[in-house]
Amino acid sequence: MQSSKASRLRNSSLGDRVFDICNIIFMVCLMIVTMYPFVNMIAVSFNDANDAVRGGIYLWPRMWTLNNYKYIFGESDIYHATLISLLRTVIGTAVSVFCTAMLAFTVSRQEFVLRKFVTLFFVITMYFSGGLIPGYLLIRNLGLTDSFWVYIVPGVIGVFNMIIIRSFIEGLPEGILESARIDGAGEFTTFIRVVLPLTIPAMATVSLFVAVGQWNSWFDVFLYNSSNIKLSTLQYELMKILQTTNTSATAGAVEAYQSAENAVRVTPTSLRATMTIIASVPILMVYPFLQRYFVQGMTVGGVKG
């Protein structure tokens, strides 16, 4: 193995070596630019809030402390809100991806007479909407306000995600679907037992998009469930904590907040960094499990002879 690598290096031209070196330098710079903001947020979140006001914190905390995290997790509603966020993310992602995939399979079929009209109808909704007030009135008339299902039902179909999955399905060999029909499978059986397993890469990609949107969403909580603390989400609770801190702080001064056990000093800057880490870690933990599907081929089966 080493000898083959050495022979390739000897046989490569000067231009190839320069190109490889430039690529390496570019990728290293890109990695630094991408990672630095997140590493800096970690450093600020673990740094003393009073000291963080001075600035000058880059990759490592100057004065280590857990007070920022103690303050946020000291809120009594934060744990229940985290549970609601997890539920809406898991349920909302599963329902949305499944329903979107069914629609994508339907409009991908050449025998579906209205496929062009239905596709155009959905695409138009990507460019035009009814607006905030008509949308709120619709949700209220449907009886979804003050309900957990207001997080799920409005996002059941994602048009952009439908286009991604439809394009993926259209790339599948038609012979696979024909084989299922010859064996007596109906459309739904074909979708469940043939199409879904073959579209796992596209489903994984779309699932990540939907999950991130569900996890980060807070405005729908503000609109429809702000009066019901039992349906509050993590993002909405973090937003309220930051809003309270911004209101209480004056000209960037450090304010003291009394927790259940002792006084904890926080600032809007330290809280923003801490909230960013808390909100990002769950998604970062999920991504490695989905990443392997991104590089898979479009089909994993063969045409039955």
Give structural notes.
Keywords: Cell membrane, Membrane, Transmembrane, Transmembrane helix, Transport. Belongs to the binding-protein-dependent transport system permease family. It comes from Paenibacillus graminis. It is a multi-pass membrane protein. The chain is 66% helix and 3% strand. With 305 residues, the protein is mostly helical. It has a single domain, classed as Orthogonal Bundle (MetI-like fold), CATH 1.10.3720.10. Strands 1-2 form a two-stranded antiparallel sheet. The longest helix has 32 residues, at 14-45. The protein is flat. The relative contact order is 0.13.
Task: List descriptors.
flat; 305 residues; 66% helix; mainly alpha
SSE blueprint:
Elements (H helix, E strand, L loop, with lengths): L1 H10 L2 H32 L3 H4 L14 H7 L4 H31 L6 H13 L4 H10 L17 H12 L3 H9 L4 H12 L1 H17 L2 H6 L9 H15 L6 E4 L4 E4 L1 H24 L14
Antiparallel strand pairs: 1-2
Helix pairs in contact: 2-14, 5-8, 5-11, 5-13, 8-11, 9-10, 11-14, 13-14
